[in-house]
Amino acid sequence: MKKLYVAGLVLAIPMTIALLMLLTPAHAKSEEAKAPSTEIKLDNFTFGPATLTVPVNSTVTWVNKDDIPHVIASNDGLFKSKALDTDDKFSYTFTKAGTYPYYCSIHPKMQGKVVVQ
């Protein structure tokens, strides 16, 4: 009887570990898919998306995909990046709900907003 019990454990433990290894990556991927995007791309003199809605305490990252520099600046002076060259990033964490319009201070017609809920 003990041999049967030990043999069952020897088979059950590796099978349980294998099952957990298979299920864990799938669960992680589904969680990532549910997470809202917090990245804004600057490309062809536009912000994409032009309006981004995020929860309070989200960090938003702007990534310059243009071949020319851009400076991200909030309309109310709350945040301002350095000049971002191609592939440079700038991040800001929004701690209060509200609507935060911003623009490129080099190219003022480039405008966007972050809505924090």
What this model shows, in words?
With 117 residues, the protein is α/β, with parallel strands linked by helices. Residues 26-35 have low confidence and may be disordered. Strand 7 and strand 8 form a beta hairpin. The strands form 2 sheets. The protein has a 4-stranded mixed beta sheet, with no helix packed on it. Strands 3-8-7-5 form a 4-stranded mixed beta sheet, with no helix packed on it. It has one helix spanning 2-34, and strands at residues 39-43, 46-48, 51-54, 58-64, 72-74, 89-94, 98-104, 111-116. The chain has 2 domains: 1-35; 39-116, Cupredoxins -  blue copper proteins (Immunoglobulin-like, Sandwich), CATH 2.60.40. It is elongated.
Tell me how many strands there are.
8
Mean pLDDT: 84
The helix content is 25-40%
Q: What is the CATH architecture annotation of the largest domain? A: Sandwich
| Class derived from helix and strand content | alpha/beta
CATH topology of the largest domain: Immunoglobulin-like
Uncertain stretches of 5 or more adjacent residues: 26-35
What is the C-alpha radius of gyration, as a whole number of Å?
23 Å
Termini separation comes to: 61 Å
Order of helices and strands: HEEEEEEEE
> Which outline best applies?
elongated
Q: Please give the order of strands in the largest beta sheet.
A: 2-1-4-6
Tally of individual helices: 1
Q: Tell me the name of the CATH class of the largest domain.
A: Mainly Beta
